[in-house]
Amino acid sequence: MNDPLIQIKNISKIYPSKTNPVVALNDVSMTINRGEVFGLLGVNGAGKTTLSSILATLHPPTSGSITFNGTSIYSDLMTYRRSLGFCPQTQNLDMYLTVEQNLLFAGRYFLMPEKEIIERTKALMEELELTRYASFEVHALSGGNKQRLLIARALMHHPELVILDEPTVGLDPDIRKKLWHIIRGLKKRGVTVILTTHYLDEAEFLSDRICMLHRGKVILIESVATLKSQHHDNKLEDIFIELVEDEQKKETE
Amino acid sequence: MLINKQYFYTYLALVQRDAWVIRQRLAHAIINATVRVLVNVIEFGGLFPAMGVPQDLIAPLFVGSIAMQLLFQGMGFGIRTLFDIKFERFIDYHMTLPLPKRWLFASYITYFCIEAAIVTLPLFSIGIVLLSDSFQSTTPNYPLFIIIYLMTLVFNGLLFLGLSLYYQFDWFMQNLWPRRLTFLLMLSPLFFVWHKAREFSPKAALIMLASPLTYSAEGLRATLIGGSEYIPAHLCILGLGVAILLAIGFTARGINKRLDPV
Description:
- The structure holds two protein chains of two kinds.
- Chain A is built from nine helices and ten strands.
- By secondary structure, chain A is α/β, with parallel strands linked by helices.
- In chain A, strand 1 (4-15) and strand 2 form a beta hairpin.
- Helices cover 39% and strands 26% of the residues of chain A.
- Chain A has a domain at 1-83 and 194-253: 3-Layer(aba) Sandwich (Rossmann fold), CATH 3.40.50.
- In chain A, the strands form two sheets. A six-stranded mixed beta sheet of chain A has the order 6-7-8-3-9-10, sandwiched between helices. A four-stranded antiparallel beta sheet of chain A has the order 2-1-4-5, covered by helices on one side.
- Chain B contains eleven helices and no strands.
- In chain B, helix 10 (212-224) packs antiparallel against helix 11 (233-259).
- The A-B interface holds A 56-60, 74, 77-79, 81-82, 84, 86, 88, 90, 92-97, 101, 105, 108-111, 153 and B 6, 9-10, 13-14, 16-17, 20-21, 24, 88-93, 95-100, 260-262.
C-alpha cells in the first residue's frame, strides 16, 4: 500500500537572466512514498540537483507546491527541516572540527538532549565505521570517510527523509559498495531516501522506484522491477539510453 | 513571545561552535594581538612624537588606527565567507538547519564580533595603558564607548558579510579594495580629526559624513578621549545606527542574490 510522504506538484525552477533564463525544472510532479528509496536519474543538467536542492529547502521553486505528510513544506518550514537529512554533492563538513565534534554539534543544532547526542554519535560512528577516526580533523579523512561522515551527520537527528545527492561520485568501487549497504540499511530502518545519481547500476541496486529527468522534465517514473519487465529484462543502463534517445528524437522532430 | 526559544538555542549552539573554533585559534590570536599592540605603541608612542607629531594628536590617531584594524578584521571575515560560498559550501548545511535566515546570519555576525573583539580589545586596554602619557587628560565615557564599539563591530560584520555575498569571488578579490574600500578608508578621518579637516575643507568634511567609518573613529574618540574636539557621541550613535540599517538591507540583498534562499 502506497503511503505518500512527499507530493511534488507542478514544480518549475527558472534561473533568471537578462539574456537567457535557464529553465532547470519544468512542471515536475511526483509522489514519494514513505519508506522507499526513490532514485532520481538523469544526465548532467537534467535537473536532479536542482530538485534535490529544492526538496532540501536550499532554494525555493519558481512555481508549484511541495507537501510533506499532507502539509506544505513552506507553511511549516522548520518542522520539515527537522524531519530532513541532506547530503549535498559537495562534502561540506565543518573543517574546523573533528569527526566526533561534527556529529556532536549536528545534534546540538537540532536541539537533541546532550545524553542522546553522545549515544547517537557513538552509535553512528560505529555503524559507519568512523570510530577510529573520531578525533581526526575532517581534512585528514579520505573521500570515502568524508562521505560516511556526511551521511552520519545527516542521520544524526533521526530524520524521516534523507536526500542523498550523488553520494558515491568520485569514490573507489569498494567504498561505493560499502555506501550502498549503508543506504540499504536506511531503508530497513524505515527512512525514506531520495537518491540522486547518474550511476545506473547504483540506481538499479538501491531504488524501489526511479524517476528519469531530462532537461528539467520528468520522462518516466516507474519501479525498477516493472521497468525491467517492460523492457525484456534489459539492464537499467540500456533502458535509460533508449529513453534519453527517444526524448532527443522527439526534440529534433 | 518575542524570541522563539528553539531558534535561540540553535543560535546558541552555532555560537558555541564558533567559540570552540576561536578557542582553537586563541594562541594565534594572542600572538597577533600582542604584535599589533607593540607595533602601535612603538609607532604612536615613540616614532610619531619623535617625528614632531603633537602630543595631543597621539591619542586620537591611535584610536583611529583601531577603527582601521576593525575594518581589516572585517576584510578577513569577508574573505573567509567568500571562500566558503565559492568552494566549501558549509553555508548550505547551515541553510538547511531548522533556523530562520535572520538567526543564522546573526550567528555569523556574532562570530565576527567575538573574533574582532579578541583582537582589538587588547589594543584598547593595553595600548592605552602603555600610551598613558597621551591619554592623561582624557575623560572617557565607558558606557557610550561600549555602545559605539559594539555598533562598529556589528557594522563591519554586516558590511563584509554583505560584500562577500553581493560580489562574485573574482570581483571581490580583484576589485573590492581599489573600487570600494579605498573610498571608505580615504574619506574617513582615521588619521586625522574630523573637525580639523572641516577647518581646511568644509566640503571634504561634509563628504566624510557619508562614510560610516567617520562615526566609528570619531565616536570611539569622543567616548575614550572626551572633550569637544570630536563629533559628539550621540551623533555618532545615530550615524552608525543608520549605517547598520543600510548594511542590513545591503546584506539581505546579497543573501537573496547569491544564495536564493527559502
